[in-house]
Batch of 2 targets.
Target 1
Amino acid sequence: MNGVDRIDQVFQDLKKRGGAAFMPYHAMGYPTRQESLEVVAALAKAGADIIEFGIPHSDPLADGPTIQTATFSALVGGTTVADCLQMSRELRDRGVETPFCAMSYYNPILAYGEERFVEAAADAGMDGLIVPDLPPGESELLEPACRAAGLATVYMLAPTSTEERIKSVARHATGFIYLVSVTGITGARDELPPGLPAFVERVRRHTDLPLAVGFGISTGKQAARVADIAQGVIVGSALVKAAGSEEGLDAVRSLAERLATGSHRTQGESD
Amino acid sequence: MTLSTTSSPVNYGAVPDETGRFGPYGGKYVPETLMPALEELEEAYLNARVDQAFMQELANLQHTYVGRPTPLTYARRLSEELGGAQIYLKREDLAHSGAHKINNALGQALLMKRKMGKSRIVAETGAGQHGVATATAAALLGIECIVYMGTVDMERQKPNVFRMQLLGAEVRSVDSGSQTLKDAINEAIRDWVTNVETTHYLLGSALGPHPYPAMVRDFQSIIGREAHSQMQDPAEGGPGRLPDVIVACVGGGSNAIGIFHPFLEEENVRLIGVEAGGHGIEDGAHAARFADPERGRLGVLQGTKSYVLQDSDGQIALTHSISAGLDYASVGPEHAWLRDVGRSEYTYCTDTQTLAGFKALCELEGIIPALESAHAVGYVLELAPQMPKDQVILINLSGRGDKDLGTVMQTIGGVR
């Protein structure tokens, strides 16, 4: 099985079981290299179905303060692209089998060499790739490289996306489509946007791919509401914040368990 | 005639292509949320360009409000002192609000007002000149205006912060990263992503995702069009001929592309961009993207592919320049392309040379230039003596230096 197959398998299994995939993000190298490995292992154990493996970049323009601070601290701590791939390898060696999607901005990948990066990522046990500043149309090198290596090319859609762009993303995406819940940047928010169900439905009309919703989700209750309308629940900032808190790993575990429970609940159980 | 390309002429009008590329440079590397806004902006701009009423309204404002055309000044004493080529100055420092930035700010603000149905502008600023220009245009047209500025830049450009506030803009300080221009752009983009339905991002240089590099170039090309006709007209103070060399400073590169562009087909006119050499290339503390073979490489920063100062891991390098307006890790994509095709050349001027240019212009011409523009002057101090007296250099004097008095006083310790 290649990366696309492993991600497809997650959503196939969920179809039978009901509920949505719990898809946490972590900023690798934060708070420290060792702790970030423990965070990912803990997320997997708490019931994560797919993990977004954040490779830090100096200029994360789609990220809010929490992830900005965490990735900046990871960079100051010496985290490199190559070491993030090495961390993936180490987690695989420890027996963590949850599919990983590498998530970074385009420049670190460009600097590494697009084809070289994709091969190295697949070799390190990555299953997919998410690059927020690389919409379809700009990825003429990266996309074929991912196809060849069996990595999923995950693209994002936003509430502002036109029908044309939804169609284009539906044509180019594999694995799943990442729906940005709000017009905005990453970060925990109190309320889910009221237009979310309509947005999900609008995308659904153009694709059979699983739809995962991210940005702003921070509680088990919100996760359950998202699970009612989509196939995946992505949580980043809230967990990164937990990882950086005094309780650290314990806080990650307990929040991840609540989020997993919310995500995995079957239709209608949320309210 | 080494620059002649008669065997395979380059079509300068063909860039950017419809995907926003200048050869391998440019493009649209932005989060999906912004893609529709870029498409909308492009449509509005293409529409405005052929709209007589819009272009007429802009031309009227350029004339009656900005004070265009800006004069051409023969720098007689500077030319005599250097003993070589005759030096002319295109006086963008005399444009309303003190720099060429108003050309683009007014163009985009009017575009938003007349063609886009949005009500709020966000902008970034480094030296504060673009922020002041944007606040000015926003006040003129009655638009809400937020300007993001790095904390370090706010400190070194205090008078401009106060100017923006006086003009009714809200200045928001940016504490992330290096707290300079790059970080202000990140923060402006984050605001834009969040408020994209009501907000236009008024980007101040020939940078960023398509259509900004082309649109900003077009709004700034009025500099080169005026200079092209003024140089040939003695009644306008010109030498009655085109210049042999045009020199302009290059941060993002909007004043440079503005004066270069109308001269691209004049193959006997050398075009030279001057980057910020900071403490020197070997020192590493500079913002000379083309001059640093180790760290200046093809990269993507803030929506566009170009030369970017970065480390081997693709993390953006911290830059240094005495002038906040040139203190940026990337350069406009059209400059990268013009350099590739051999049409324009790039060099750099260190902080020290820049101060020499600054002082020369003050003492010999009675003009206090912006530190950005003083980079072009600093380079000409070297270039002019190497050229015969019958040759002509045109400097784009992109802004005035009132905002820099604090920096200069600190650096040279006041007037001797």
Note: Confidence is low (pLDDT under 50) at residues 1-7 of chain B.
Target 2
Amino acid sequence: MLTNIISISLGAILINNFIFSQFLGCCPFLGCSSKVDTATGMGLAVVFVMGLASAICWVVDTYILVPLGLAFLETLAFILVIAALVQFVEMFLKKSVPSLYSALGIYLPLITTNCAVLGVVLLNVQNHYSFIESVVYGITGGIGFMLAIVLFASVRERIQFSDYPECFEGFPICLVSAGLLALAFMGFSGMSVFG
Amino acid sequence: MNIKKQFKEGLITNNPVLVQLIGMCATMAITTTLFNGVGMGLSVLIILTCCNVVVSALRKIIPNEIRLAIFVVIIAGFVTIVDLLLQAFIPALSESLGVFIPLIVVNCIIIGRAEAFCQKNTVGASFFDGIFQGLGYTCVLIIMCVVREFLGSGRFGGGLIDIANGFRFTLDGTGGGIQIFPADYGASILNLPFGGFLTLGTLIAVMQYALKKSAKKKELAEKEAAEAAEKEVEE
């Protein structure tokens, strides 16, 4: 059980990093990574929402959709759960932790359309994870996302001062440097955890 | 009418991936074989066109405050339909695209077009917008696939084209493609995630270069025309 959890977490954070090897959540990864501060905020919000969404969607899938034979509605049900969850978290933070709420700002509602969140929930179902495994996969997947976005934001802050062809200005140079980071993360891919 | 203009916008000047810079996750993830690229592009084209038509038909009924939730439900409905159809009729494609088919729900292209175009335009215009934007997306996917496959493994049309028993198209993903040079000489790094980032980055850079150049040309032509007009006035 424990080894299983450790192997899921290491896999989600390093070996099969959500951004660098599965390409989930690239839009916010490229959109919100111009400063380290906002990247950290976004990363924290994603960890939180991915963990919660994994838990709730597992319950919805196992106790509502599957018994009723509605498994084909998974995509529809999950995106609604995620949208409602994000809205709820937003309201809750606004009332009880206003400092975190203002730090996250616009990024919180944008998480609804982050494909890492919907992706982790769908992968949980595909891999037949148990409740605990789903939550662990959600949280560690979020941590992997956060690691990636914070690392990339620090790289981007330096790109501003470097010299590159004019036509690569803006997005292209970011994509190329993200590719180099992905290449670095490839180094983990040979690792196998506990067989 | 302005169908021509819409065509040009969707494919070039307002291309969803290369100019609007949206919907990039799937673009980088699945463009490893032509089979995947064409399949994904056409799925998005169909879903986008259907959603555009429905959203623009309902644009006067949908309350403004909850429009995004309604868009998402409409999109998720069509995505589920396409997902189930693919599972039933082209299982190989469904298997190889995996989680990226249901993830079309959160593909920014579709919700972006619903928000930016269909809300303000007629059903007909939205229909063509869906087709042309979808075509623009498909073209980018195809270019990415062709480049990555050719440089990565020296092949063209992997999964889609079968030349073992004469030239034919396959829908079960078994076609070996046309081997142009031996796979051992390919830069297999392009088949890795790194290749996705690099190819898309370069493609966008080329696009930026071309758009800038054509804008400059236009500016120059306008300047010349203005100078000529001035000269005429002087004379």
Note: The beta strands of chain B are 155-156, 161-162, 168-169, 178-179.
